[in-house]
């Protein structure tokens, strides 16, 4: 029997197959079992070199998406049990997620369960979506003494304005949960922004800094984010 292999949690990065790391691709090539968390992860995997062969070893898992994580946690507990059983048989298993596994990724619940059970795991990082959005627009996020704040939700327009007044670049992930608040700030204040939804999906992707385009988006989808910052001079 093979020696137990670490269970790999593999980040695919921000939905562009060409941006996957060599380390992540190597883990997938060596995996006996691959679990894709959602159709988006499977689409990226299938587009990789030798993707059809990888896809044949892949099971697509649809994790319940809700602010109440009870159902998702129960699902991950069952998956953790299955992975540890396969690990005990010497199989190399990879769990694949879009974006970065350490940045607002539900797969962290799985990693917690595996660690608590004493299983050996390896987390392979990927490019977060907000990094990819800025790069796709040909811009950097921060420079020199500027600060970056990443939020999963904004609770009030005053909260957002307070951070921006300090010269902080603010990223709001999961934008659909606070879209009206962010719209208010964008409509009334003169801030530069980059808005992205379904980044990397050629059929659905939108990437814009046009105020009217953003303000007219209804509804804002779950897979969306916005980067907001005070106007920056070229020399800064």
Automatic annotation (TrEMBL):
GO molecular function: cobalt-factor II C20-methyltransferase activity; precorrin-2 C20-methyltransferase activity
InterPro entries (UniProt xref): 4pyrrol_Mease (IPR000878), 4pyrrol_Methylase_sf (IPR035996), 4pyrrole_Mease_sub1 (IPR014777), 4pyrrole_Mease_sub2 (IPR014776), CobI/CbiL (IPR012382)
Catalytic activity annotation: Co-precorrin-2 + S-adenosyl-L-methionine = Co-precorrin-3 + S-adenosyl-L-homocysteine + H(+)
Pfam families named among the record's database cross-references: TP_methylase
EC number: 2.1.1.151
Protein's pathway: Cofactor biosynthesis; adenosylcobalamin biosynthesis
Coiled-coil ranges (or none): none
Superkingdom of the organism of origin: Bacteria
Keywords (A to Z) from UniProt: Cobalamin biosynthesis, Methyltransferase, S-adenosyl-L-methionine, Transferase
SUPFAM superfamilies: Tetrapyrrole methylase
GO biological process, one term: methylation
Residue span, Tetrapyrrole methylase domain: 7-205
CDD domains: Precorrin_2_C20_MT (cd11645)
Subunit composition and interactions: Homodimer.
Family that this chain belongs to: Belongs to the precorrin methyltransferase family.
Name of the protein: Cobalt-precorrin-2 C(20)-methyltransferase
UniProt organism field: Porphyromonas uenonis 60-3
Lineage start: Bacteria, Pseudomonadati, Bacteroidota, Bacteroidia, Bacteroidales
């Amino acid at each position: 029997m093979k020696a137990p292999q670490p269970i790999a949690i593999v980040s695919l990065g921000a939905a562009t197959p060409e941006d996957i790391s060599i380390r992540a691709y190597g883990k997938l090539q060596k995996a006996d079992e691959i679990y894709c968390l959602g159709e988006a992860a499977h689409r990226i995997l299938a587009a990789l070199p030798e993707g059809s062969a990888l896809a044949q070893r892949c099971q697509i898992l649809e994790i319940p998406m809700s602010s109440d994580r009870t159902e998702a946690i129960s699902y991950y507990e069952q998956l953790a049990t299955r992975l540890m059983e396969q690990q005990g048989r010497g199989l190399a298993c990879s769990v694949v997620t879009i974006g970065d596994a350490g940045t607002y990724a539900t797969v962290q619940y799985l990693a917690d369960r595996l660690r608590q059970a004493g299983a050996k795991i390896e987390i392979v990082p990927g490019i977060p979506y907000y990094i990819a959005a800025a790069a796709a627009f040909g811009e950097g996020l921060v420079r020199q003494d500027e600060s970056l704040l990443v939020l999963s939700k904004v609770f009030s327009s005053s909260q957002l304005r307070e951070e921006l007044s300090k010269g902080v670049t603010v990223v709001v992930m999961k934008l659909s949960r606070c879209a009206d608040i962010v719209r208010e700030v964008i409509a009334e204040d003169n801030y530069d922004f980059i808005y992205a939804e379904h980044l990397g999906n050629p059929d659905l992707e939108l990437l814009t800094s046009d105020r009217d385009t953003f303000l007219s988006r209804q509804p804002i989808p779950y897979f969306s984010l916005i980067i907001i910052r005070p106007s920056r001079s070229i020399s800064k």
